[in-house]
Write a structure and sequence with these properties.
Layout: E1 12-16, E2 26-30, E3 39-41, E4 83-89, H1 95-98, H2 106-113, E5 114-120, H3 129-142, H4 152-162, E6 168-170, E7 180-182, H5 187-200, H6 225-239, E8 247-252, H7 253-259, E9 269-274, E10 282-287, H8 295-307, E11 311-316, H9 317-322, H10 326-340, H11 347-374, E12 383-389, H12 394-413, E13 421-426, E14 429-434, E15 439-443, E16 453-457
Parallel strand pairs: 10-11, 12-13, 12-16
Antiparallel strand pairs: 1-2, 2-3, 4-5, 6-7, 8-9, 9-10, 13-14, 14-15
Helix pairs in contact: 3-11, 4-11, 4-12, 5-11, 11-12
Length: 459
């Protein structure tokens, strides 16, 4: 347990002296720093610990001696100036793929479901009791498990779009059973690589200007120009222009340890964490000359990460400056296959993987719409205009399903919450959705006025 600050009674975090005669030693610092400079000595000095380097941590292990992994809340190291972020798990599967995911394919499940949503900070939120209540039910429905089944119209539209009729069969002759299964069971064995390959396709990495190294701001993601050069120059040169998406800067080391039940609250950080669904994570430390004076501390950190099944690669500054070296070669040998390996996937499996990817994107769209209702951006008896980039007419089916659920909840709970008019703009054009006939009609922009809209972008 962390102590209370002796000056202001606030919480305290474990820190490490960077310079002076106490450099390398730990102490408890007030969370209100710099307003409050209260400190408490930390008795267990790591440089004096000659025994097990993990002895300062409490660890819960399973019967095989492996630490149990638990989920942690992911937090931004630096916040965007104009945006609020939400990290959540939201995704879904079509019924024809659910059998495959009954097995322990946790990395694939996380690849599909882990999601970042961004909301504009300056957009006002005005929730109402009825919309709050409905959204609480809808959110629970969409997040009922790590990868629940997708909604019915969504699956049907994807089957039609990708021409999957020949690859699927109805599970029963019962008309009330809407589920399908794959006609060829061998496809299951290839699907994992095909799905990961689909989600690996990303746009070229571009660092936001507000995150660039700058000693005059507090929004920089990096502690030095060397770290920025690593992510901006070396990674694209070694692995491709999109590879930097997988290298996460300034990851909280103590949060990672906490996820493996090593309880030691603090704010230590890893320079970069390479996190990719195809291999185990790799911690990357960019080491300057100051690391020569504290090898025991580095050794302790590396051993703790190793106990969490995370390898550490330490790259000296000079290798970053020269663009070559033994430690960079070690990183290359660990990651090169991920970015340069070409999976041999037959056309049928590739199409199935594309359909699964699109279905999970549609569930993220549905979640975004529910959040817009919750925040008061889409209101009862108002015109809803929803702009969607990165998806075509399958998005209309996903929205139809949300409207049907809303209708049912209105009846069950005697609530009135429904749009007055609905216009959907997607990659296929602009559509007016007739709420009475439940059919969409393609229109031109001059035919509508924009009252209320949300944007959902996928790149």
């Amino acid at each position: 347990m962390s102590p209370k600050c002796p000056k202001c009674n606030s919480g305290m975090s474990l820190r490490e002296a960077k310079k002076g005669k106490f450099a390398g030693q730990k102490f408890w610092g007030c969370d209100n720093f710099p307003k409050c400079r209260g400190i408490v000595n930390y008795d267990n000095d790591v440089t004096n610990n000659k025994n097990n380097s993990s002895s300062n941590f409490s660890n819960n292990s399973d019967s095989n001696g492996k630490s149990k992994v638990k989920s942690i809340v992911w937090k931004d190291y630096k916040s965007r100036s104009a945006w609020l972020s939400e990290y959540t798990s939201i995704g879904s599967l079509p019924s024809f793929a659910s059998y495959y995911f009954e097995e322990e394919e946790l990395e694939v499940k996380k690849t599909i479901s882990q999601t970042l949503l961004l909301y504009k900070k300056d957009r006002k939120r005005n929730s109402e009791p009825d919309s709050d209540f409905l959204c609480s039910i809808l959110i629970k429905f969409l997040q009922r498990g790590l990868l629940p089944l997708c909604t019915a119209k969504t699956e049907k539209s994807i089957i039609e779009k990708y021409g999957l009729d020949n690859s699927l069969q109805k599970n029963t002759n019962d008309d009330s059973d809407l589920s399908y299964s794959l006609t060829s069971r061998h496809i299951n064995l290839k699907l994992k690589n095909a799905i990961i390959n689909q989600f690996n396709n990303k746009i070229d990495f571009k660092l936001d200007s507000e995150f660039k190294f700058n000693t005059n701001t507090d929004t920089s993601l990096f502690d030095s120009e060397i770290e920025q050069k690593f992510i901006n120059e070396l990674i694209p040169n070694y692995f491709g222009k999109d590879a930097a998406h997988w290298f996460l800067p300034q990851v909280n080391l103590d949060d990672l340890l906490s996820s493996h039940s090593f309880e030691n609250p603090g704010k230590r950080r890893i320079d970069f964490l390479f996190c990719h669904p195809s291999i185990k994570p790799i911690a990357i430390e960019i080491d300057g000359s100051e690391h020569k004076d504290k090898p025991e501390i580095d050794k302790q950190r590396d051993e703790l990460l190793k106990s969490c099944d995370i390898e550490t690669i330490r790259i000296p500054n000079r290798e970053i400056e020269n663009g070559k070296g033994n430690n960079l070669d070690k990183l290359t040998s660990s990651c090169d296959e991920i970015f340069n390996k070409e999976y041999k996937i037959d056309e049928e499996t590739a199409i199935l993987a594309k359909s699964i990817k699109e279905i999970t994107l549609l569930s993220k769209l549905q979640y975004s719409i529910v959040k817009a209702i919750k925040f008061g951006w889409l209101n009862h008896n108002e015109d809803w205009i929803i702009n969607i980039k990165g998806l075509d007419n399958s998005s209309i089916s996903a929205i139809k399903d949300i409207l049907e659920i809303l209708e049912s909840l209105n009846i069950i709970y005697d609530i009135k919450f429904y749009p007055k008019n609905l216009v959907i703009e997607n990659d296929s054009g602009l559509f007016f959705y007739d709420l009475s006939s439940k059919k969409e009609i393609k229109i031109k922009k001059k035919q509508i006025r924009r009252f209320n809209f949300i944007n959902y972008n996928y790149y």
